[in-house]
Structures are given as structure tokens and as C-alpha cells.
Specification:
Blueprint lengths: L4 E3 L11 H9 L3 E5 L4 E4 L10 E6 L5 E6 L4 E7 L5 H16 L14 H4 L6 H20 L2 E8 L4 H9 L20 H8 L19 E5 L3 H4 L6 E5 H8 L15 H20 L4 E5 H10 L6 H8 L12 E5 L6 H4 L16 E2 L2 E2 L3 E4 L2 E8 L4 E5 L5 E7 L4 E4 L4 E5 L15 E2 L20 E5 L8 E6 L4 E2 L2 E2 L22
Parallel strand pairs: 1-3, 4-7, 6-11, 7-10
Antiparallel strand pairs: 2-3, 4-5, 5-6, 8-9, 11-19, 12-13, 14-15, 14-18, 15-16, 16-17, 20-22, 21-22, 23-24
Length: 507
């Protein structure tokens, strides 16, 4: 059964309660709704502050982070976090714009070789690694704000990239001095290694330089340097003629594919120690480090399926706890695109205004909306009020949807939450307001201009802008004028389609 997270009147987390208990507190005016997803209430009175020991297990990763907060009996919170992996591409794009700017007529600027971040800040990490560390810390802090976490256990990993490459390529595993004598040992640079590896032969036409024939050889990137890097498995030898034809699109290299990337393994090795040190310095709770072989032993001992949330539950030390039936999906998104990344330089140095305003009819990028009964996010917008709607996992819902057909259910945040299973928790009865569909209740025949005459029945506000959504309210039989209830209506006065803070008439 889903739990409702509870905060005391000072905003500090308490143990969660059942939806029935939360509904009773809201009806009696002893609590207020603090957050919709995950559903959280805040008490308006002093409480005893009783807490059980809750452990938080974190399965650190480069592409997916597993979180699980549990006691010995129950799992209270489970989530998967998808860190950002677009930082490398964005930085490469920025580098391209800066290089293009240097070629234009600009004033002379002195070199700033000594003014670099690496020389000024000890412990500097690449932005692609730094953003992953910050997302780990942010996700953990969000769970600590919902539950009284008493202990934090983090699983870190350090991968042997040379051993992994040997296993993928079918070579003997490195032993002893083999780690010092790598694949590029005794080579001047990557280009020389690639030419020697390919036997100084074009991998497309087979041309080979000799005393009778001069062939100019190039090193071609199978994937763009922006995304694939300068790794040897991303480069291949081509002659000058084939290289030009390839870039013109007249020939292809279908049989040549980029080798397996070790970027994620490198990320984990770099961020491993830094993550633990920062967590211990920023959090006031004990932070314990564990390892993957321990997690695997616990999971296989109890015959549990492999997943990030299951691993996090094993890391927390409570594999026998009742698993949560709700798993949240958390995905960080960009707040705003800088013009530097996508601007087009026109005549006179004027940048094209190729993006819509930040706010379009009250909606912003990545706002959570409801469209035809589906909860989705705004992934694109035009100044005319046309939106591109997608789900959190990137599934396209529809393009070109008018703002009149969408209903805002949540402003954008740095982290978006979505339940993988079932629906969101229904809003508690009593104070508050919730949206329902036609089939959720026995709706009377009353419309916006024709009030229902039967007291106590559900009254329908059917707006043209949102025909798929209904705002329901108990009707006392009073006449409705200009979209408002009369002041003598026991259900209260409310504008059509807007939230209602009702009493006895609340749905």
C-alpha cells in the first residue's frame, strides 16, 4: 500500500502514514498538502517526533542510480535516477562556437594560459563527472528531506578497463607488467598507433603506400569526435581519396563500427572517492561505503531479481523487507538553453531569436500537464501556444497541442518524478480539489449554464478548453451566474475550473 510522507510543523521528516490517516488529518485541518509527487503532508501541530531507524541504500552508477529507503520490515521509498549524459556534447558545441569566433575579426586578447580552473582549484573534475556527482548528492538529499534517514550506505565501483577490453576483444587477460605495457606502449601518439595497427593500409579500398606508388593516409573518426572522442577504437585508416568520398556521402563504411566505449567505467572510477568524501562532509548522518560483490552475494542468497532498486534494497541491509509497489523515476533536465549552444550568427553580429519566451500563456518548458487523461511534460513550445508533449522517458505523446487543451498539474522542477506502476495517489477527500474523468463518478446533467437542481449531487463544470477534464463540485441547488457560485451556496464560491478550498461541498 502506498505511503504518504509526513513532515512536522518545522518541515523536518517524520515516519510516513497511511492514506486514510493523511485524509483524516487533512479533513480535520491538522495538516496541509506540501507536495503532490511524492504526496507529502505537513502537520500544523506539534508531534512527539517518534522515528524508526531508516537506512538508505544507494546503488551509484553512471547511467542509472538506484535508491531504496527501508526499515527492517518495509521499504518506504524506491526510485531510479537517470543522470544527465549530454554534458560532453554541450561542451563540445560550445568549443566549436568559440573556435569559430576566434576566426572572425575581433580585438586582440592576451593569452590567459595561467588563468585556468585546473591551476586555481585543487580537486577540479571535468564537468561531465562533476554533474553526475552533484546529481547523486541531490537525489540523496531529496530522500533525506522526506524520511528520517539514520544511516546511508553507498555502493561504489572501480573497473579494470584493460581487463574489460581484453575480455571484449578475446585477448589474454593482462597480468603483472602487462598493465604497464598497454596497447599504445612505445608509440608516439594515437595516430601512429592507428596507422601501425591497420598495417598502413586503407581500410576501404586496400591502398598501401610503396616505392612505386605514393598514397597519402588519413585517420578517420568512425563517430564524431564530439561524441566518440579520440580513442583508438573510434579511428580507422583511410586513404585521402576514400576519406573525401566518405565525407561527401558517396561511400560508406558499413562493416566498420566503433569499439566498445569505456566512458561509464572511467566515470565511476573517477567519481568513486570524491562522492564518498563529499557525502561525509555535507550530510550529518553516518555514510558507509560498500562494494558490489557484497551486494551480489546478498541478492543471490535471497534469490532476488537483478535491478537497481533491488540492489539498493540489499545495500540498505534489509533484503527481507516488503518491497514498495511504487517506484519513482527521477530525471534531471536543463533549466534553459543558452544562445551559445544553438544561436545562428547573422549579418551584423545579430543573434537570431529562435526560441519562444520563457513563459507562454503561463506555461514553461518541462511543466507537468495533463492531456487527454495522460500526465506528460512540455518538451517544446512555440510563442503561439503550441506545445510538444512527451513522457518522462522520452515517449512522444503529441506535437502541436494547443495550450487550451492542456491542464497544468505541476510547475517544473530540477527533478521530475513519475511513478512506474499504477497511478498517482488520489487527492485526499475534504479540503482540496482533484480532477477526474467522466467514468469516475455519476455526474448529473448540470452544465456551466444550467445548474443542477438536486442538492448534494455532483455538479459539472464542462469547459471548452478542456473537454476531457471535469472539475466536480457538490451542488446545493443554488443558481449559478457568470461562472460563480452564489455566496449563499454552502459549497463555497469558486471560479469555473479553478481550485476550490471547500468545506462540506468538497469532492
Amino acid at each position: 500500500m502506498p505511503k504518504v510522507y509526513v513532515l512536522n510543523k518545522h518541515g523536518h521528516p517524520l515516519m510516513p502514514c497511511t492514506p486514510a490517516k493523511a485524509r483524516h488529518l487533512l479533513d480535520s485541518g491538522k495538516a496541509k498538502v506540501r507536495k503532490r509527487t511524492p504526496f507529502t503532508i505537513q502537520l500544523l501541530y506539534g508531534s512527539s517526533g517518534y522515528k524508526q531507524p531508516v537506512a538508505l541504500g544507494v546503488d551509484a552508477g553512471s547511467k542509472t542510480i538506484g535508491l531504496s529507503a527501508s526499515t527492517e520490515k518495509k521499504e518506504l521509498f524506491a526510485a531510479e535516477v537517470k543522470p544527465r549524459n549530454d554534458v560532453v556534447e554541450l561542451l563540445s558545441t560550445r568549443r566549436e562556437f568559440r573556435q569559430a569566433r576566434r576566426n572572425r575579426k575581433t580585438r586582440y586578447r592576451k593569452p590567459r594560459l595561467d588563468n585556468r580552473v585546473k591551476s586555481k582549484h585543487k580537486g577540479w573534475l571535468a564537468p561531465s563527472v562533476e554533474v553526475k556527482i552533484q546529481e547523486h548528492i541531490t537525489a540523496i538529499a531529496r530522500v533525506c528531506a522526506l524520511l528520517p534517514i539514520a544511516k546511508l550506505i553507498v555502493e561504489t565501483a572501480e573497473f579494470d578497463t584493460q581487463r574489460l577490453k581484453a575480455m571484449l576483444e578475446g585477448r589474454p587477460l593482462p597480468v603483472g607488467t602487462d598493465y604497464q605495457l598497454g596497447e599504445m606502449y612505445d608509440e608516439y601518439n594515437v595516430r601512429q598507433y592507428v596507422l601501425k595497427r591497420d598495417n598502413y593500409t586503407c581500410q576501404c579500398c586496400g591502398a598501401h603506400p610503396s616505392a612505386k606508388k605514393e598514397v597519402k593516409l588519413h585517420v578517420h573518426h568512425l563517430e564524431s569526435r564530439k561524441t566518440g572522442g579520440n580513442a583508438p577504437n573510434n579511428q580507422v585508416t583511410l586513404c585521402e581519396h576514400c576519406h573525401k568520398l566518405l565525407h561527401k556521402g558517396k561511400i560508406t563504411l558499413d562493416k566498420k563500427k566503433r569499439g566498445h566505449s569505456m566512458r561509464d567505467a572511467a566515470f565511476m572510477g573517477i567519481m568513486r572517492k570524491t562522492l564518498i568524501l563529499r557525502l561525509r562532509s555535507e550530510l550529518a548522518i553516518p555514510v558507509v561505503e560498500t562494494y558490489g560483490y557484497i551486494t551480489k552475494l546478498v541478492r543471490e542468497t535471497h534469490h532476488m531479481d537483478k535491478s537497481h532498486t533491488v540492489d539498493a534494497l540489499c545495500i540498505a541491509g534489509h533484503p527481507l523487507a516488503d518491497a514498495s509497489d511504487v517506484i519513482y523515476l527521477i530525471k534531471p533536465v536543463r533549466r534553459h538553453n543558452r544562445q551559445l549552444h544553438k544561436a545562428t550568427i547573422l549579418k551584423g553580429g545579430v543573434r537570431k531569436a529562435n526560441q519562444a519566451p520563457k513563459s507562454v500563456f503561463g506555461f514553461r518548458l518541462f511543466d507537468k500537464v495533463r492531456y487527454q487523461g495522460q500526465e506528460c511534460f512540455i518538451w517544446g513550445r512555440r510563442s503561439s501556444g503550441s506545445f510538444l508533449l512527451k513522457k518522462l522517458d522520452g515517449t512522444k505523446v503529441k506535437d502541436g497541442v494547443s495550450y487550451k487543451k492542456t491542464d497544468s498539474i505541476g510547475k517544473r522542477n530540477k527533478l521530475f518524478n513519475r511513478r512506474k506502476e499504477a497511478l498517482l495517489l488520489p487527492m485526499p477527500k475534504g479540503r482540496g480539489f482533484r480532477s477526474v474523468n467522466y467514468d469516475e463518478a455519476n455526474i448529473c446533467g448540470g452544465t456551466e449554464r444550467n445548474a443542477c437542481s438536486e442538492p448534494g449531487s455532483l455538479y459539472r463544470f464542462d469547459r471548452e478548453q478542456q473537454p476531457e477534464q471535469l472539475w466536480l463540485q457538490q451542488c446545493c441547488g443554488a443558481e449559478q451566474r457568470a461562472g460563480y457560485f452564489r455566496s449563499d451556496c454552502k459549497g463555497g464560491c469558486v471560479q469555473v475550473g479553478h481550485k476550490f478550498r471547500g468545506g462540506a461541498g468538497a469532492v
